[in-house]
Amino acid sequence: MHSEPLLLNALYYLIAAVIAVPLFKRLGLGSILGYLFAGIVLGPHALGLVADPEQVLHFAEYGVILLLFIIGLELAPEKLWNMRGEITFIGGSQLLFSALLLSPFFFLLLSDLALSVVLGLTLGLSSTAFAIQLMSEEHILASPLGRKGFSILLLQDLAVIPILILVGLLASGADNGHGAPWYLALAAVLAVLGFSRYGLNTVLGIVANTRNREVMTAASLLIVIGVAVLMDQVGLSMGLGAFLAGIMLANSDYRHQLESDIEPFKGILLGLFFIAVGMTLNLELLINNPLVMLAAAALLITIKTLVIVAILRWARVSWKEGFQLGLMLSQGGEFAFVILSQANQLGLIAMQFSEQITLVVGLSMALTSPLVMAQRKLFHCRSERQPDQDAHWDDHEPEVIIAGFGRFGQVVGRMLTSQHIPFTAMDKDPAHVEFVKKFGNRLFFGDLTRLDMLLAAGIKQARTLVVAVDDIEESLEIVDQARAQNPDIRIVARAIDRFHAYELFARDVNNVIRETFPSAMEAATSTLLNLGYTDGQALQVADRFRKYDEALLQKSVEHKDDMEELLTIAREGRKELEQLFEEDKKDRVSA
After folding, report:
1. Over the stretch 569-590, which tens digit does the pLDDT of each residue have?
2. By CB distance 3.0 to 4.6 Å, which of 107, 108, 456, 563 could disulfide with 116?
3. Residue 400 forms beta bridges with which residues?
């Protein structure tokens, strides 16, 4: 009975997203504005196809939670500590000065200083989901300017909790509105920190040993949602809980696997979140007072942009870059909807006033993308994607990726380490991951036959890929996917046997290393030395044989699928080899 409306609503969401998002991206307005427009069309103030947008918004907030988890994954605790100056100065200044300039407008309307300050802080928050996607689309996310923007967003996310507490204190004067003692919140945070530090890798290792991708995905979602719900139960922000879980897992061996498992759910739920935001916008307020509402949204954008520009100028960032980042962070944030909803439920503000502020926030979101696009065209300031930039927060992108870290891959990794060359190594055997860690090597759990794992490992930026897996099909699949994503990457691949080498050569692998050939050549050379050959004679014979065999291998590649021709080449090769031995024998006698 109830499944039909649910499926019908899902159908509406998908149709609206599939039509609106490509259209808006084609117009250069960005996917988020497309989602917002789709929500407006579906909502009760337009076509009215979805009757209860608040329920959808509550569910879709998990998209924001998953986004905060992935952001946390990209920030190891030591990197977060290294950013403390930018977070405190740039992020703190932005929020405080924005609130200082916005609060007087609310005081004129409400004559309540404390509530005006809370509302000023609320509108001082920007949309993490919106701004991160804008910075990614403008290719500045991994640049120094993007780091400064991220510092502002990070401080704002952390500020949500005290703002919610302030709302609760204004309503009751006693507690934080959640009914949970402060010591329970502290105990929950310490429990999460302790489990993340000492138990989580073990649990994930047990799950990974099942070799079941669905179970691993379920475990990833359980971690994020479980920690988020726990934080919510003790009176803290669900977003903070997810962010905290991400930070604790930033140094985990399973980081890339978790990120690739969560990414699809994050994208879907974030899209649904912005559709739900669009559905909650009361268009009647805009129709009745279009100039007032648009002026209020423009004022919010102007104040926040100018504050960010001024702070960044103080931090020695150019006017041009400061204005670019200021516009991207000038909109109201998704947490404003959460805070306004709680304030309304607690009776601090009237419903109509809450809807007006919500509309202003939504309009600011809708205006941001066109303003950024206009600014880009006016000042020609869109950053070109650099080879070392990606949507990750690592200080150094790996120059080398090693797929498979068994005995073969470890030798490569150890030599690179001795030369201080950064690399990312991945292996799909969780027991192997734990074993290698004991000897000081850094290794991530992951299956590089999956495209999302290759991308997470940095295949688009890496200069060299070493394929060291011991499975022929996996090896060829990794080579094919790597070439498709990065045609310029140089590939060094381990060949299990001669037929594997044929396939690798056919794929234009730069260096094919036959697994047993070098060691067999070394053994043959040692044998010649034991038989009385001089070092020079033994090395000369080995070199001639190596060149002959490599030439024969290259000749065979063209006929790798023709067994008759391969047999003919092999027979001719044996004759040539006999002639080679005869020449060696004559050289030996004459010597």
Report:
1. 556 656 665 666 566 555 555 5
2. 107
3. 423, 464
309 neighbors 326 (Cβ within 8 angstroms): yes
> What band does 528 get if pLDDT is binned at 50, 70 and 90?
confident
CA dist., res. 163 & res. 159, Å (int): 6
Domain at 3-379: CATH code:
1.20.1530.20
Q: How far apart are CA 200 and CA 195, in angstroms?
A: 6
* pLDDT of 251 strictly over 50: yes
Domain ranges of the chain: 3-379, 396-515, 516-591
> Is the CATH number 3.60.40.10 carried by domain 396-515?
no
Q: How far is CA 438 from the centre of its chain?
A: 28
Q: For the sheet containing 511-514, what is the strand order?
A: 444-445, 423-427, 400-403, 464-467, 490-495, 511-514
**HSE-CB of 241 using CA atoms within 13 angstroms:** 25
Using only C-alpha atoms, what is the Rg of the chain?
A: 30
Q: pTM for this one?
A: 0.59
What gap in Å lies between CA 486 and CA 461, rounded to an integer? 8
What's the pLDDT at 422? 76
Q: Which residue has the higher pLDDT, 113 or 382?
A: 113
- What totals of helices (H) and strands (E) does the chain contain, helices first? 27, 6
Placement of tokens 């006693």 in the chain: 174
Given a cut of 70, whether residue 386 has pLDDT beyond it is no
Rounded-to-integer distance, Cα 279 and Cα 301, Å: 22
User: Which long-range contacts link 289-293 to residues 24+ away (Cβ below 8 Å)?
Assistant: 293/356, 293/359, 293/360, 293/363
SS3 (DSSP) at 450:
coil
Q: Give residue for tokens 């205006």.
A: 367
